[in-house]
Design brief:
The complex is a heterodimer of chains A (383) and B (429). Chain A is α/β, with parallel strands linked by helices. Chain A has helices spanning 14-26, 36-56, 69-83, 99-110, 128-134, 157-167, 188-191, 240-255, 257-276, 303-312, 332-336, 341-345, 358-375; strands spanning 2-3, 63-66, 90-94, 114-118, 139-145, 172-176, 195-198, 210-214, 282-283, 293-297, 315-316, 347-351. Chain A has 2 domains: 14-254, Aspartate Aminotransferase, domain 2 (3-Layer(aba) Sandwich), CATH 3.40.640; 257-382, Aspartate Aminotransferase, domain 1. In chain A, α1 (14-26) runs antiparallel to α8 and α5 (128-134) runs parallel beside α6. In chain B, β10 (197-201), α6 (207-217) and β11 form a beta-alpha-beta unit. The chains are: A alpha/beta (383), B alpha/beta (429). Chain A: Its cofactor is pyridoxal 5'-phosphate.
Chain lengths: 383, 429
């Protein structure tokens, strides 16, 4: 079985697993406890914060540990909206955000906030001018992802950031960096981002930990209360082992970013070239997209069916983001890019990791051809 | 005035600092100081050199009343942030450098205005100074020659030669002309150490770090003394003081911290049945130990964070009874300040967030229910005279004192905090 779902979850590095194991055995004390083992555990958290800050080019006190990128995104969006509600109740985001941002915005909408959703172009990229045009005097937050989790489209964050700040200096800028870190350069300062979310398990770290960069001077309304952990913004006992292992994964994948690109980009290009050559497919990824995602639609068949067929042929792929793949609804992201309902239902996502080789890609190509042949009999005849 | 100019630049959006070639540092009040001036200037220069160390491309040069930092691509904003904390620096101007030719000066002045992007209606003037007398135009002439084309390019600017919001200054020298208009306020005061050395009683609270900073600003070199009572106070409390001293070291380059084991001394006061005098006795013991340390280190005063009336030990009567335990001058920079002013200052200098961390320290421990606000000096002295082994205990505390040299970017720890971290293995990260 070949695994092609790195964008959903990546296998942890061996070193990460070892770190996790050792710390679980040695440092089980609560970092908030006043005794020596507690102080040691606290020191591990502090050191992890420093390591993460160095990897992101920010200050340690700007790093917050959460339970995952979903929490980071929720905290960034709702925390900023609630904290700065006196500045206004308007938020700008895009149609293609991950559900953890998108639905946080919808939730705020139900509480009286006004949300402007900016649509992408046909390639899945949002126009910075459109984002800036949506920013008003009472816009508290703009949230735009770095790399789209379905199509791999890369958003022009530097341009978006500078235009937001030109339009309204007080508007906060949140970047969901989950699919971008370790693949593309992370330039929090250059983007002028005030908030940045990151998920270690997408970069071969453990699950259950998320990172939120909060620029110094920016306050967030706590979503979880009941403790003074994480500067009082996020209560709850820290998962020491997973936090340390996350710091390690983030450092390692940051250091290996160029090597990763060097290895993965030729494979991505070959695969993208291959799926572009299959007449039954509509390709949704572009050549200047992220180096690890190839997304296409097979409009004649539900993506789910295609995924099952490929699994039968030894290939694990997903339909879109894992978080929404259990919904039998057309993809919101593809619809917003102007694709029709059939395309939006027939999406298949292949995401690569550093374990993949030329031979793996060749095998996948063979399986794709076989699957298309086999599925002819169930085609909906939408073409 | 200085503040006004800063706000004017900020309100209009642009700042010349991002485009500066050089920073011009001006000295503060000590320029009045006649004979000692050279020594003062040298001290500032040494401190500036220390702060510029992490930026190898920056080049320093000194001139009467000023220091120039040529950036050569080093980040102006970061450097200015660091340098404005150097005691003795009154202000910093980001400078653009042009060749000393009329066309160049005009072109750079234009760029300068574009960066600043002054708002409509900003009042404006040009002040040229011809230092290099061979330059073909005089100062007054240059004012007009530069201002006229600038005003044509910016119809929104209004001329005001008396108190303009934006004053574009030109200094024409042989080879280079300096062009600047913004002033970032520096912390001012006297260069560090030019007024001698004192010992600072550093607790973990809000006041004492502020007292330390205020003394340093007056040119005092400060060494910190902290009393801890393990196991009654935690290692975290001691680490907190190390971290506080680290913040102070940003202003000093390096700062000494003496960690005094105080448990034996402190517990010896608890069994004498004079609970209301414990604080008085304790503070006197601290002063005695500090006086010994001061002799050892060659310091001539003791600085405390006392603020009149704040707590029982800070009534006039208490201060009198406590202060008599030392022959050294007691400096109390905060004595007449309101708590809210002290809190504001501690936020500004960056110690507040550390100070409010909730650890027990030796001053909050063993606090009697009703400490006296009016201690009787004779009784206090009598108790001390009859306490068995009192002075031996004080000597032991001095002997057991651990001294750390704290630097802004270091990672110094008291010895047993280090052992608490023995569990940390770097390969985990």
């Amino acid at each position: 079985m070949l695994y092609w779902d790195y964008a959903a979850a990546s296998p942890p590095y061996e070193e990460v697993v070892q770190t996790m194991e050792q710390i679980m055995k040695l440092h089980y004390a609560n970092p908030s406890s006043l005794h020596r083992p507690g102080a040691e555990a606290d020191r591990l958290i502090t050191r992890s914060r420093e390591v993460c800050a160095a990897a992101l080019g920010v200050q340690p006190q700007e790093i917050l540990f959460t339970s995952g990128a979903t929490e980071s995104n929720n905290l960034a969006v709702k925390g900023a909206a609630l904290q700065y509600r006196s500045r206004g109740r308007h938020i700008v985001t895009t149609d293609i955000e991950h559900p953890s941002v998108y639905e946080s915005c919808l939730q705020l909408k139900s509480l009286g906030w006004e949300i402007t959703f900016v649509a992408p172009d046909r390639t899945g990229v949002v126009d910075p001018a459109h984002v800036a045009a949506a920013v008003r005097r009472d816009t508290v937050l703009v949230s735009v992802m770095h790399v789209n989790n379905e199509t791999g489209a890369v958003q022009p964050l530097r341009e978006i950031g500078s235009r937001i700040k030109a339009a309204n200096r007080r508007t906060l800028f949140h970047v969901d960096g989950v699919q971008g870190y370790g693949k593309l350069e992370t330039q929090i300062k250059e983007w002028q981002a005030d908030l940045y979310s990151l998920s270690p398990h997408k970069v071969r770290g453990p699950r259950g930990v998320g990172i939120l960069y909060v620029k110094e001077g920016v306050a967030l309304f706590p979503i979880l209360t009941g403790g003074s952990q994480e500067q009082g913004v996020r209560a709850g006992t820290e998962n020491v082992a997973a936090v340390v292992a996350s710091a390690k994964a983030i450092r390692m994948s940051g250091e290996r970013r160029e090597a990763f690109n060097h290895q993965i980009l030729p494979l991505r290009n070959r695969l993208l070239d291959f799926v572009s050559g299959i007449p039954e497919f509509t390709v949704n990824s572009s050549w200047d997209g992220a180096p690890h995602i190839v997304h296409f639609s097979y409009p004649a068949v539900n993506g789910e069916v295609m995924a099952r067929k490929l699994e039968e042929l030894g290939m694990t792929v997903s339909t879109r983001s894992a978080c929404s793949s259990r919904l039998a609804e057309p993809s919101r992201v593809l619809l917003s890019m102007g694709r029709n309902a059939a395309d939006a239902l027939g999406g298949v996502r292949i995401s690569l990791g550093d374990s993949h080789t030329e031979a793996d890609v060749a095998a996948l190509e063979q399986a794709l051809l076989t699957a298309v042949q086999a599925l002819k009999i169930v085609e909906r005849g939408t073409k | 005035m200085m503040r006004d100019r800063e706000t004017a630049a900020a309100a209009s959006g642009g700042s010349s600092i991002d485009y500066a070639d050089m920073l011009l540092l001006r000295f503060g009040e000590f320029t009045l100081k006649g004979k000692n001036r050279t020594r003062f200037e040298k001290t500032v220069l040494r401190h500036v050199k220390e702060m510029v160390k992490p930026y190898p491309k920056a080049v320093l040069s000194k001139e009467f009343g000023r220091i120039y930092v040529t950036l050569n691509g080093e980040p102006a904003r970061e450097l200015a942030e660091a340098l404005k904390n150097v005691f003795g620096i009154a202000s910093i101007s980001p400078v653009k450098v042009s060749r000393s030719e009329f066309e160049d000066i005009l072109a750079v002045s234009r760029t300068f205005l574009e960066i600043i992007a002054p708002a409509q209606g900003t009042t404006f003037k040009v002040s040229a100074r011809r230092v290099w007398k061979d330059f073909p135009y005089g100062s007054i002439e240059m004012n007009k020659l530069i201002a006229t084309p600038l005003l044509q390019g910016y119809p929104g600017l209004l001329v005001d030669v008396k108190s303009p919001e934006l004053e574009l200054k030109l200094e024409i020298r042989e080879g280079h002309t300096f062009i600047f208009c913004e002033q970032i306020a520096g912390v001012g005061g006297f260069p560090l150490g030019t007024n001698g050395k004192a010992m600072l009683l550093l607790s973990g609270g809000i006041d004492s770090p502020v007292a330390g900073w205020s003394s340093m600003r007056r040119g005092l070199e400060v060494e910190c003394v902290h009393f801890y009572s393990y196991p009654y106070t935690s290692e975290l409390a001691r680490q907190k003081v190390v971290d506080l001293a680290r913040v102070l070291s940003r202003y000093a380059g390096v700062i000494k911290l003496h960690l005094v084991p105080f448990t034996e001394v402190q517990t010896s006061f608890t069994g004498i049945g004079q609970d209301n005098l414990i604080i008085t006795l304790m503070r006197r013991a601290m002063l005695r130990i500090t006086t010994q340390l001061a002799e050892r280190e060659g310091a001539l005063a003791v600085v405390t964070g006392d603020s009149l009336g704040q707590v029982a030990s800070q009534t006039l009567s208490s201060m009198n009874a406590i202060g008599r335990a030392t022959v050294l001058p007691l400096l109390r920079p905060l004595v007449m300040m309101d708590k809210s002013e002290i809190v504001e200052l501690s936020k500004t200098i960056g110690t507040y967030d550390l100070s409010i961390l909730p650890y027990e320290d030796c001053c909050t421990l063993f606090v009697p229910k009703s400490p006296t606000t009016n201690p009787n000096l004779r009784i206090v002295e009598k108790i001390e005279a009859t306490l068995p082994g009192y002075s031996a205990r004080l000597d032991a505390a001095v002997a057991g004192t651990e001294t750390l040299s704290i630097t802004p970017y270091g990672d110094e720890k008291p010895s047993d905090v280090v052992s608490a971290q023995a569990g940390l293995q770097e390969e985990w990260f």
